[in-house]
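Researcher: Please predict.
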Amino acid sequence: MCELGEQPFVRLHTPHQLAVADQRSAVDRVAAVLGEVPLLQPVFTGRHGASVRGVREGVEIVAVTNAAIPDSVLPQRTTTTHGTIAVLRAVVPWACNVEAHVHTLAVHDLSTRYSVAVDVTDGEAAEAVLAGLVRDKPRGRARRALLPTGHSLTVRVISL
């Protein structure tokens, strides 16, 4: 169980190794306990996922199917552990300059490329992190830019 704000919540992700029918059955059972109707929504082209959200005994519960992309659709892996280490080392000088504004920083290995994600606590910190970078258009609370290393950066404003 996690706590977000004042209300505790539980998030249940069904394992992608299960058949979608079995995942849907698990979400349906949670929905029955909550007295809610699961939502069925498109996730990928030709693939749908089910989810349900409700409150029981003061705890918000969210259950979702895991509509992972089938391995046959995924591109061949082109990244390596050594490559991830190289990205981390390359990002260090930039990260040292923005450290005072960053809540968390992560380098993501996306199998075919690397990306960097930073969480900040307010818009002012986001602007400081993005200073001097080539920016992309904002997407909701997330902002994107290109790091001096050539890697993409996503800056998210989070609430603590």
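Model: The radius of gyration is 19 Å.
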